[in-house]
Sequence to fold (462 residues):
Amino acid sequence: MMFQNRDELKKGIDGVLSVTGNGVAVLNESKLRDRLIDRLVYTAVFCDDEETKTSSRWLIRRAGAALGILSSSIQSLYEAMGRKEVTGFTVPAINLRGITYHSAQAVFRAAVDGKVGALIFEIARSEIGYTEQRPAEFAAAVTAAAIKTGFAGPLFLQGDHFQINAKKFAQDPSAEVDGVKALIREAVAGGFYNIDIDPSTVVDLSRATIKEQQENNYIINAELTELIRSIEPAGITISIGGEIGEVGGKNTTVEEFRIFMDNYLEELNKIGGMKGISKISIQTGTTHGGVPLPDGTIAKVKIDFDTLEKISEVARSEYGLSGAVQHGASTLPNEAFDKFPPTQTAEIHLATGFQNIIYDSDHFPAELKQRIYAYINDKLRGEKKESDTQEQFIYKTRKKGFGAFKKDMWDLPAPVLGAIGKELENQFAFLFGRLNVNNTKDIIERHITPVDVPSEPPAALQ
Fold:
């Protein structure tokens, strides 16, 4: 399926792709979509030869650019939302933990059918680790899926929860912040022009005032904002997200938001007065992945839509932000999703629900699931809490099977991948309808001007 070395790669693209300076010419689009893109993406993900893997990733990204698929920042749209010129929908940000090339195709099929343009693909700092997907790989897989399905237009790739680890920060603050900075540099180099900073983990609610509680948060946000602005490619303003309340903690208040923003902006003024965040993530009652009950089912939660609406309004009216962001939402009941656009929620993050569709599909091989669960019971037993039932333990840890069994999942028979992909596509189409992002392609075209960032070909292709 994949190319083993650069000679095979060069021979394989002959007559279909041609390297021209810093770009790629698509000589035969039908052959690219029919077969070559599959081989390129498998090489980009699984090839043992690093030179060939890197070359495949470059070819995918540059072939995408030639077809009008360009990594972009959503900043201009969010600025228009901040001016209240654009409203009425909530942008879905989709985390793809497993079978990314095939899952992304399901997203794009639904997007093409619904003429969806307002759509983000993202991966969190923690997910990068346990799903074994570095930013460059994730970008290549999503771009390849866009090529395969005929999607064209701005491609919004986002670093989700580029988060400060509270325990590591307590031990060595500088080292932990430097770790996030290194990831930001890697992500931006890989085409991620939307970055969500998350030092909400080091908010200290034991301190006397809200300003003191949020101090670490707004100072680190400003420091990381400065870094991002310093490494932006020419012509691109990266969309940066901030976060006040850690998801799963206490609900956020309007007062906390104002105090955070005022002090964050003051910190930015001290270091040059650069453009700040475009949105703010808050806590409204959800938990990442949902709360599994003893039988493995998910507890129902009550979202504080009133807080979402109030903070979104203050964010727009007083600070020019796009609004509030809802995390941990993919496991909500279906009837909840059409409530987000009326509250002017700017963005909603969706992850675990898609993971559940894959694992719980009748088409997912029982033998593979048994091997994954056996691995979890063997290798991850130390993560089981005394209070967890077996069902709760499996539910909370099976996300880590996507990395350990990545190739097994990608190598599933085509009919199996197709059937699971159809289930995912149906859910994406449902969500796009409820979040009111169908027919937003024209809106994106009006507000986003994609910029082609030059990229020299790897030595193997020169």
Remarks:
- Residues 70-357+416-447 form a domain with the TIM Barrel fold (CATH 3.20.20.70).
- The chain has a mean pLDDT of 94.
- The chain has two domains: 6-67, 70-357+416-447.
- The two ends are 24 Å apart (CA to CA).
